[in-house]
Amino acid sequence: MVALEILRGNEAGLQPRMSLQGYIIGNGITDQNIENNAQIPYAHRMALISNEYFEAAKISCNGEYDNPDPNNLQCLLALQPIHECINPLDDGQILEPKCAKPHLIGRNHTFWDDFSIDHLLLPFVKGGMWCRVSFVQDQNYATSYVWANDPTVQEALHIRKGMILGWTRCNHSLSYEINVQSVVQFHKLLSEKGYQALVYSGDHDMIVSYMSTLKWIRSLNMTVEDNWRPWVVNGQVAGFTEKYKNNDFYLTFVTVKGAGHTATEFKPKECFAMLDRWLSLYPL
Questions:
Q1: Residue-wise pLDDT tens for the chain (284 aa)?
Q2: How far is CA 229 from CA 131, 237, 253, in A?
């Protein structure tokens, strides 16, 4: 949406003109209907549900797994054991433990208010479950709260005093209306103008699965320029990639092996190599 707005501004002659050559989408929600309905096929492909469960839902639900017809009892019955299998999982990274998420994030209060710097220095309870983010343990993001709420950091970032009472990683107090349900058409418009795109997915992300991303990419009816193949970092397979072409528009699709939602926080080394190569116009 931002790339398209820049394009329109350039075409309208707005100043200053922005030198837009392409854009990058990582684990991006593009069409929620596609993404939500891809979760069950993805769960089947990742061996989270049985063939029997998937085939029963596939036959009775006609591909509408997210908002099934309430009068379709066969579909509802078929979905019940599937949800029992996938609900206990962390859909952001299916390999990690599912933990209670923060629920006190707001404009004037965060769950970080209840913590002190000592939590960064003291070891966590022995035998306790490791959690990337939870209400009682924010082990992966703790330092970002300390850093972003430091007055000297906020001064260096030119944050006006009083504007931010307490920085939070996810600010759920913002009020806005979702009025765009799909941006697939935006990609189509950009492709017709010849911009380059890098679209990547963590292959263990069930929120926006790589299957759903591939589905909307292939709906653009582009030609496969470079067939599906592994890409490598330090001699090891970092994921898989496929390149599409439409006239002068190139779209590079990439999976990041072992990464979740979002890929960069799970596999920073591999994602840095991916971004560096793409920005340098060097093949993955």
A1: 999 999 999 999 999 999 999 999 999 999 999 999 999 999 999 999 999 999 999 999 998 999 899 999 999 999 999 999 999 999 999 999 887 655 433 334 444 444 444 444 344 444 566 777 654 445 677 788 899 999 999 999 999 988 878 888 777 777 888 889 999 999 999 998 889 999 999 999 999 999 999 999 999 999 999 999 999 999 999 999 999 998 889 999 999 999 999 899 999 999 999 999 999 999 99
A2: 33, 10, 11
Residue in 179, 176, 156, 159 with CA at minimum distance from that of residue 167: 159
At 251, give phi and psi (nearest 5°).
-120, 120
Q: How many CA within 13 A on the CB side of residue 3?
A: 20
Cis peptide upstream of residue 16 (ω within 30 degrees of 0): yes
Spatial CA neighbour of 210 closest among 230, 251, 240: 240
Domains of the chain and any CATH numbers: 2-28+182-279 (3.40.50.11320), 32-86 (no CATH), 103-169 (no CATH)
Amino acid at 185: Q
Q: Is the pTM of this model over 0.85?
A: no
